[in-house]
Amino acid sequence: xxxxxxxxxxxxRYGDPRQYLYFEECPVGTGWKGSRYLDAFVIAAWPSANNxxxxxxxxxxxxDFLNEIKKPEKRRMGLFFSNYFYFxxxxxxxxxxxxxxxxxxxxxxxxxxxxxxxxxxxESLRPSWNFVAALLRRGVxxxxxxxxxxx
Length: 151
Description:
151 residues, six-stranded mixed β-sheet
């Protein structure tokens, strides 16, 4: 399974612009601050959903996941700016007990994307203007080919 397949599954879940603003591979800032990227970042579009912010870190290999776990600073910015942080992997790649307590796990299988470990709701920092500028420069992700297929 590829990261592109996982991104498509995330888009099917969060790509409706009437409900969510969905960004892929967005830098956490502009200029030198933009050297780290979030695989996917979602903002709920309405106050009734508390404008919840979700960060997704995609892992398609066990070695990549284990490296991420050893270096928690890599996910620091995603945790700062989101209320929910999820690792998204192919089904069975990681054990649920390996997921850090501040994170959740979504798994993709032939039957679709499923939440295996719920991410806890966390208070987040207000985004910096540098991060907002990076999101605006990146633009909301659209996948016309997926939108035509439907959910």
